[in-house]
Amino acid sequence: MSIKAVAVPKPRRHTWSGRATILLFLAPALLLYLVLVLLPIVQAVYYSLFNWNGLQPLTNFIGLQNYVDAFNSTLFTGALSHNLMVVGLSLAIQIPMALGLAMFLSQRFPGRTLFRVVFFLPYVISEVVTGILFYLLLQPDGAVNNILWSVGLDGLTRDWWGDLSVVMITMFFVISWKYFGFHMILLLAGLQNIPKEVMEAALIDGCGKWQAFRHITVPLLGPTLRVSIFLSVIGALQLFDIVYATTRGGPVHQSDTLAYYMYDFGLKRQEMGFGSAIAVLMFLICFGFALIYQRFVLSRDVDGATTSYVG
Amino acid sequence: MTATTKPFDDTQGLAIAVPKKHKKQTKFGVFLSYLPLWLIGIAVSSVIVVPLAYAVFDGFKEQGQVAGNAALLPEKWIFSNYGDLITSPVFWRQVLNSVVIGLLTVGLVVVCASLAAFVLARLKFRGREVVYTLFTLGLLFPAAVAILPLFILLRTLGLTNNPLGVVLPQAAFSMPMTIIILRPFFQSIPPELEDAAKIDGCSTFGFFWRILLPLSKPALATVSVLAIVGSWNAFFIPLLVFGNADQWTLPLGVMNFSTEHTSNWASILAFTTLSMIPAVLFYMVAERQIVSGLTAGSVKG
Question: Is B17 close to A143, i.e. CB distance below 8 A?
Answer without folding.
Answer: no
